[in-house]
Amino acid sequence: MATRRKHDVEVDPFNAGEPTLPWDEPDAYIGNEGDDCAFGDAPYKSPVKTRDNYDAPISKSTGARVKTEDRQTSKAARKAAKAAAKQARAHASKTADKPVHVIRTVLIIFILVNVVGALFDLVFDQIIPAFFFDEPAMEEDYSTDPVVYDEDEQACVDIVSARLDQLTSAEGPERSTVADAFDKNLSDSLGYSAEELGLDANGYAGWLLTNCSYKVSSVYTFDDGTASLYCDIWCPASYEVENDLMDELVEYFSDEGISTDPNHQAALSEGQKAEIREIFGDVLAKTDLDHNSYAHFALNNIDSVWTIDEEEYASQIEISLGIF
After folding, report:
1. Scanning 2, 33, 65, 127, which has its CA 20 to 30 A from the CA of 109?
2. What is the pTM of this model?
3. How far is the C-alpha of 248 from the C-alpha of 190, rounded, in Å?
């Protein structure tokens, strides 16, 4: 069994004094400065404390302070845990209520949109026409049952229907109106009339008018001897036909080197006219035949006879046919 040396005595590290170094011992050196070292030539090795199981004692005051701090830390941790749990419950409650708020908001917006839309329809279809035009509000009838008119209303329907039947048969004055407008627009845009291009303006007018149709929507007679009749008209729009034809002919003229300058124009050859007619036929084949417009015709009762207002009739027909 090993013997304990004096340096192996258990020392309290908290109460130990300053360590004694080898050169601080009185017997470290023998002789004066410059003499040989007392340890000779052997290398010096400082003493090392042997490891043991010694634990320094803890005072009562220190232990009490540690326990108090532990209790305080535990109490703060419990408070923090309670606060976190409360916050989590509040967040879960808000999250659970969120879909309800979203659904409620969507329903409110839906109701508002429908109510506002209904109010706009009421104002513009019922109140404004009655206030400004002193006419009953127009209501479109989509039923298939025949409409029953009184004597004056039926007289107005018969007069307008007779004029529109004449229009759609291409036997009325509207045919020359369409042909003249077509010829003038070609001359103004290309410098060539319809005839110079090899096109039949009158034939075009007949094609456009015979593709027209109409339906009377409503008629109203008033005590002052006037009446208003409304109807839908479906037909090709002349301005759309002309625009499409112009686009094609401008490209054709460019390819053929044909000038649109009235001062430097040459007569077109028969071959060129034939090609232009073919181009025109393709344009007509692609034209929408069901361009819809809503026309209003005014009538007057003069000496118990209903007559149509010719000036307004002509204006409404030009708009419906797309003549500008």
Report:
1. 127
2. 0.55
3. 12
